[in-house]
Write a structure and sequence with these properties.
alpha+beta, 14% strand, 174 residues
Length: 174
């Protein structure tokens, strides 16, 4: 990537906020939340037990008619999922027309390192958004943020897209 990724810290801060909303809804056993003045129903978020289950999910997202229509030919390009060494980050790497999502899967040193954070739907959609984003606005710039929110809306529902867009705005995004 050429240049500085100035949107990265804002995107991660916004994403932490949205993760907290989903986590709080799950812990409370109630899907209702008030988020910056808007009352909404938080959709359930998929959690994955293995890299293989995450791969099946990625394949299903790529096969969605709405995704295929919105991002041709990127939706036709394969995205592989693999384990990543370390536990602090997930990442997407473009390889030709396709790509690879690498995630810590939580199996290594699980007792000492909570890597389950990466085996959740919002993290996977973040990485898939890199696959669909043109990258013209920077790796985590305004175009990426809109791609991520739009993808989350298609897959998880309008509430997820709303949560992301509001969180991005709160953090100084588009």
């Amino acid at each position: 990537m050429a240049g500085r990724d100035s949107g990265r810290s804002r995107v991660y801060a916004a994403q932490r906020l949205v993760h907290a909303v989903f986590d709080n809804a799950e812990r409370a056993g109630s899907r209702e939340a008030v988020f910056f003045g808007t009352r909404l129903t938080v959709p359930p978020e998929a959690k994955f037990a293995s890299v293989e289950s995450l791969q099946r999910y990625v394949d299903q997202v790529l096969a969605l008619p709405s995704v295929r229509q919105r991002w041709p030919p990127r939706a036709d390009a394969a995205v592989a999922v693999r384990k990543r060494k370390g536990d602090r980050a997930a990442h997407y790497e473009r390889i030709g027309e396709g790509g690879v999502i690498a995630v810590p899967d939580g199996s290594a040193a699980a007792a000492q390192s909570p890597t389950g954070w990466a085996m959740r739907e919002l993290v996977v959609l973040h990485e898939l958004a890199h696959h669909f984003d043109s990258g013209d606005g920077g790796a985590h710039g305004p175009e990426f943020q809109e791609t991520y929110a739009e993808l989350a809306g298609m897959v998880m529902g309008a509430e997820a897209a709303h949560l992301l867009r509001v969180a991005f705005l709160r953090e100084g995004g588009p």
